[in-house]
Amino acid sequence: MIRVAIFFFYLMFSTGISFASGQVSPKEKAALVDLYNNTNGSEWNSSWDVTAPVTTWKGVEIEKGHVVGLTLFMNNLEGTLPESIGDLKHLSELNLAFNQITGVLPKDIVKLKKLKVFRLEMNRIKGAIPTGVGNFEQLEVFSMFNNFLTGPIPESFGKLKNLKELNLSSNNLKGIIPTSIGNLTNLEALGLFENKLEGQIPREIGNLIQLKELVLSNNELGGEIPSEFGQLASLKILQLQNNRFNSFNVLHGMDSKQFLVLDTDDRTLNPKFKDIQIDRTRMADTKFEDENENE
Question: Using CA atoms, how far apart are residues 164 and 162, in angstroms rounded to an integer?
Fold first, then answer.
């Protein structure tokens, strides 16, 4: 019994020391080191001393011995994301926005099932959005505007019932807006500006009664504006210009006073821009060009 008691005392003591010092498992630490090596970590604006404790690495948040946050916003990351990023399974926030990350999204990134915030905007990421994006069941923010994404918008986005912000503007996405978007009843901002989307706006968007911002301009969308738009009573910012719609009758029936921003190709609706801060929308207007985009 004495030996058992000593063992449990040792186990509790050693575990407490590990948590207190903020150390993480070798697998999680290895994933962070892979990210450092893959993205030219020695040239980051705020670099890591990989020989020092993980607690000293800027942008890494640790709770109970696990990496729960990784924020390297505007930090001069240059290179590709490693497949091992999927080993950070306790991650709830990933913010690598405004860097020079290239390549495609690792297939194992969809293993990050505890993510609430996913920000990779203003990078140079190519390829398709993984169909497994629906695994991010706790996700509240998915932002990848101003990259070089191709392919369709996955239907599986419709599984993300907690999503409040979805911004895929300024990419090269094709196909239709999936009807499953109508499942995102907590969505407050939807940005699909400047892609190659076609077809009609799905009527299911009328289900998004919390939606405050809808930006669909600079696409190839057509047909009529769905009558269900009349249900979007919370909508404050609506931008539909530079598409191929053949009727805007529904918008004429909406209360123009609800809008802070209203921009369409129907000049009789009188474009409306109040003096407000809409940086998140306009941020996608500055799409940079990649000299190697077509290589």
Answer: 6
